[in-house]
Amino acid sequence: MAELAKGSRLVAWRAHPGFQRRVMKCPIREMLVGGAKGSGKSTVIGPLALKHVLKWGAKGAAALILRQSYQELIDLEEKVAPMFRRAGGRYNAQKHMWRFPNGGRIKFGHLERGVGIYWGHEYTLILVDELTRCITKEADWLKLLGCLRNGRDVPMQAVGFTNPGGEGHGWVQARFMSVPPLTVQHDKKGLARVFLPGRLEDNPTIDPVDPVTGERNGEYRASLESWPEAERRAYLEGDWDAFTGQVFRLIKGVHTWSRERFAEHVKGEPLGKDGVPLEWLRFRLMDWGFAHPYCVLWFAVDHDGRAWVYREMYGAKRNPDGTFEANVGSEEEGSVVAQAIKAIEAETGERISAAYSGPDLWHRKGRQMGDARQFAEWFEDEGVYFDPWDASPGTRLAGKNALHERLKVEKDEAGNPRTDKVPGIVFINEACPHTVRTLPTLTYDEHQPELVSKKTEDHPYDTVKAFCLLHEWKPKKATPKATGWRDRQAERRDWMVS
After folding, report:
1. How many helical (H) and strand (E) elements, i.e. helices and strands, does the chain have?
2. CA 357 remoteness from chain centre
3. In DSSP terms, which residues pair with 443 in a beta bridge?
4. What b/e string do you get for 472-484 counting C-beta neighbours within 10 Å, with b at 16 or more?
5. Would you tell me which of 296, 301, 344, 462 could form a disulfide with 281, CB atoms 3.0–4.6 Å apart?
6. Radius of gyration of the CA atoms of the chain, in A
7. Is residue 13 within a helix (H) or strand (E), and if so which, with residue range?
8. Among the listed residues 391, 475, 457, the one whose alpha carbon sits nearest the alpha carbon of residue 247
9. 278-317: per-residue pLDDT in tens?
């Protein structure tokens, strides 16, 4: 391994052969670093900045390290502080800046307020961590490139570190990947740029060493291999084309069941009028819509925490021939929908443990509907109540991942799904036809590739996603069989509050 600075006794960091060493030595003015997770790309940020200012500080070298948020900025500063201190750096906490004996400077910043605050600054090295998540438009990246200035022959460079995904995925891929990796390309002004890909195999220290065998245990790789196909291809293989096509796949007989098969599955348990065991917890969730379809789903949670979607109300416009018009709402009044919900639950006599809806239910009807009340008030007037679910920006990705977790299936030795093993969520075919119809049609968002596109018919998905976030599920590990009455009561309480 090569030392950060030849002959330096102050800095002990060494680059791994291959990928990290290539990044440390690359002289190209504009560089994209990354691809797969775990390649060791982020580890290079501090040493690359330090190498630059130690070599060129006397000529006014100044590095800028940017992250998406202030908290991420602090985390990175804490990680590199020992290295910078050993190299003689002195830290100014107010300015988030390190100064070195030869005059070199390294400043840390974040992009919560955009790139505009750095306009007019002069740097010789700019490093952006998680580029596709920090900078969503190519125009902002070009503004940062405009900050590369120096009149004393210091080589200048801008480096973006990132994985596939994020709002900036599209422009980054277009800018750096029109040619094969490691191929230097030039723009109309003759300025060079290059993409240096990293793989998990490039980082020999990613997994801890097994104390018995002395070999690395492969836990990090195993965790990435267990992800859904698109995420696995993007983050394990560094595939920038992974986020295209189908998001979810429903396997017949695994994720979707007939009423007959479900009835056989619960045979012997005390059942309600709707055929669902009386002891199972029940939830009602609704994604409200008027011009677009509304979706109401009923979930039952069994003793192992699995969710069964056993009923659906879908407010899509019906054509004269009885067919439905895709993604067009039935334009029913909230009071009408509430009355239908109340009638169904009154007929079956079921007890709902909790009910939730998205924020649209608390919008005001306004002039368009001739009423200034919130939609929720129309439901409450009929005795149908909902609590709001969390719909903040981060829940889009968290909810998608939570549904993927519930859809995981066990496979046999040949790699085929095991139909004798029940996944974390099951949909009853005849009871929720629109959910079964729309989930497999969902595609990835063109601007935020890890997320589901909002242009699709996503109302059942939004409802199911919200449930997965509200009721987290993890497969239960085998436990000793309950032997006495108290044990059975404790076991029962455990699933009731899970």
Report:
1. 16, 22
2. 22
3. 246
4. ebeeeeeeeeeee
5. 301
6. 28
7. none
8. 457
9. 999 999 999 999 999 999 999 999 999 999 999 999 999 9
